[in-house]
Amino acid sequence: MKCYLCKLEGKDTDAVASCIVCGMGVCMDHVVREEIDHWEGGYPFPATKLKKTIPRMLCKPCYNALMGGKK
Q1: Which of 39, 43, 67, 69 has its CA 20 to 30 A from that of 21?
Q2: Spatial contact of 40 and 66, defined as CB atoms under 8 Å apart
Q3: Are 31 and 42 within 8 A, CB to CB?
């Protein structure tokens, strides 16, 4: 799999991860590793925020959309 964002820039770079939101393949320059809160709960409630976070790989566009452009 190749990095989609690199391809848009005219480069041919191997992807190292797939974005957990959109599924796009991304290289090391375009991936964001983020610790995301994990929620557990039944339908429809209650939901409980677990104590530990889970590492997730996101592309930069999805990260900016989800986190409000922090990176």
Answers
A1: 43
A2: no
A3: no
Global pTM value: 0.73
Cis peptide before 46 (omega within 30 of 0): yes
Q: What is the DSSP letter of 2?
A: B
- For residue 44, what are the domain limits? 4-69
Query: pLDDT 10s per residue in the chain (71 long)?
Result: 999 999 999 999 999 999 999 999 999 999 999 888 888 887 777 788 888 888 899 999 999 998 875 55
Torsion of CA 12, 16, 65, 54, to 10 degrees: 180
Are 24 and 5 contacting, i.e. CB atoms less than 8 angstroms apart?
A: yes
* Placement of tokens 């290289």 in the chain: 27
